[in-house]
Design brief:
The chain has helices at about 5-35, 70-80, 95-115, 120-125. By secondary structure, it is mostly helical.
Length: about 130
Amino acid sequence: MGNIISLDEKLKCTQKKQAAIIRKRKLLAVRKIFRCTHCVSKCEKCGVQISTENNPSVPEYRVPYNFCDSCSEEYVAYIETLKGKKNEAFYWHNDAWLKVWSSWIEHQGAVDSYLKSKEFERLINELKPNQT
């Protein structure tokens, strides 16, 4: 009779474990968004580390993303192509290449929209330490 398990205590323990799992998933979701999309030391497109050697030489005002020099040049070429100034020497800048860039930019917009959503804001607020 001494080993009676309290159902209330068992339920509380299970609820605490579930809450811990949910909190961990929330933290991982936030960490992934910020680590993967907003790292200032890596190229947003290809992921290469940005250093003084591969820092873009094109004016920053033309490139709204954090790119390495190679991706920055490709982005400028993409914009120029959209404006009708296609460079025929870059024969690989075909319709599929345009689609890759267009899709990537659309993805960036979707990530930005997600970060501004009320649900993501709620998630961030839930993960803040209690300020009592």
